[in-house]
Amino acid sequence: MRRTSRTLFLLSLALAATLPAAKSWGAVTEDNFQLRNTADLVALCTASQSDPFGTAAVNFCQGFSVGVTRVLQEEDAANARKRPMFCLPAGGANRNQALAAFVSWASADPARMNMPATDGLAAFLAAQYPCAR
User: Fold this and answer.
1) Which one, out of 44, 52, 119, 123, has a CA that is 20 to 30 A from the CA of 112?
2) Does the structure show a pLDDT above 60 at 16?
3) Of 87, 128, 86, whose CA–CA distance to 106 is shortest?
């Protein structure tokens, strides 16, 4: 029993020692999930499937983007006197196409990458989906 516990402990240490190395292989880092700015959101949205954080990153990107979009829509709906910030097409927007357009929009101007992630997404939505006057 004691030998088995010791072996499991040593294997756990060896595995833990390899985790930081595995993290550095991919383009996405754990820090990107803190969403300090639009650049972090772009990194998550463009993660490759081969990246160790790829699936989590893309899922986070999509969930965050949908959440921010819906909160902004609710905020607009709560203030009927104010003109909406953006107007999605009647049938909705294709999520993958919209996120690809967001990445292109954000990458086109380095100043956009420094914006808080929520502000960057809101500015994109206003530019991409303006409301008719």
Assistant:
1) 52
2) no
3) 128
